[in-house]
Amino acid sequence: MMQMSEYKVVPQNAPQDDTVVRQPQAVNPGNNANGGGAENWMSIPVGMPNCPQGLEYLTALDQLLVSQKIEKLELITGFETKNRFKVKNSLGQNVYFAYEESDCCTRNMLGRSRPFEMKILDNFQNEVLHLYRPFKCDILCCFPSCMNAVEVSAPPGQVIGSVEQVCTFLRPKFNIKNTFGDVVLQIEGPLCPCKCFSDTNFKVLSANNEEIGKISKQWSGLGRELFTDADYFSVTFPLNLDVRMKALVFAALFLIDAVYYEQ
């Protein structure tokens, strides 16, 4: 049986000063010179040593809210378009923007089995996270070639780990591995990952099988659920969890969406 490695946390006695932002602060809309319609981006925390560039935002957060954009062409014609997502903090401030890179044929012929790359950008349009999901046959089996996975890089080109589906016949399960291939966290879903009229929660578990966070697919209303595959998600994790582990949990959200909710 594969041994899990304990996840890492940021030391609680780390020095703090005025340059370190631990939690996002509320912004007064009246101070927005562009009015209420302007995009409100979270201020980037600074002074974070040993942190991949662009992931500094995650050091100050314990929750992310992810909303998939409704594509009008897809809604009207059923033609599968590239997925796009907005990522916000609990105050509604923009943190990242994510978009899929894939070709038209694979999206519409292979559906949720398609290979794709997901690029996550910060407010400076810099790519801070890169996800690669290879093609996996859409068959309910336990052959290694059918197990879904994503490789995660931060910055692009520097792999920090992966999220890999585990062969189970009951609850959905995923392993989160670090750059050395060690299992550091696990994700366990419900018996039925497709619920109506309620949220669906995937638990994030530590090496001690303790729940330390969750990925939730939120019920978005009957109309949106029936006629689109544009979903709402939230992801929570400990504030002091290592920033790379936070990034991997965040990346797991996109794999879960592709496997269970891209219909």
Compact overview of the structure:
With 263 residues, this protein is α+β, with helices and mostly antiparallel strands. Helices cover 16% and strands 29% of the residues. The chain has five helices and twelve strands.
Q: What are the SSEs and their pairings?
A:
Elements: H1 56-59, E1 63-68, H2 72-77, E2 84-88, E3 94-101, H3 104-110, E4 116-121, E5 127-133, E6 149-153, E7 159-165, E8 173-178, E9 183-188, E10 200-205, E11 211-218, H4 222-227, E12 232-236, H5 243-260
Antiparallel strand pairs: 1-2, 1-12, 2-3, 3-4, 4-5, 5-6, 6-7, 7-8, 8-9, 9-10, 10-11, 11-12
Question: What report would you give on this structure?
Answer:
There is one protein chain. The protein has about 260 residues and is α+β, with helices and mostly antiparallel strands. The protein has 5 helices and 12 strands. It has a 12-stranded antiparallel barrel.
List keywords for this structure.
single chain; 5 helices; twelve-stranded antiparallel barrel; alpha+beta; 263 residues; 12 strands
Q: Number of DSSP helices?
A: 5
Determine the strand fraction and express it as a percent band: 25-35%
User: How many strands, which pairing sense, and closed or not: the largest β-sheet?
Assistant: 12 strands, antiparallel, barrel
Sum up the overall morphology in one term.
globular
Structural class: alpha+beta
| Strand order in the sheet with the most strands | 1-2-3-4-5-6-7-8-9-10-11-12
Radius of gyration: 18 Å
Q: Low-confidence parts, pLDDT < 50 over ≥5 residues?
A: 10-37
N-to-C span: 34 Å
- The ordered H/E elements are HEHEEHEEEEEEEEHEH
Give the % helix.
Answer: 10-25%
Average of the residue pLDDT scores: 81
Quick one: how many beta strands?
12
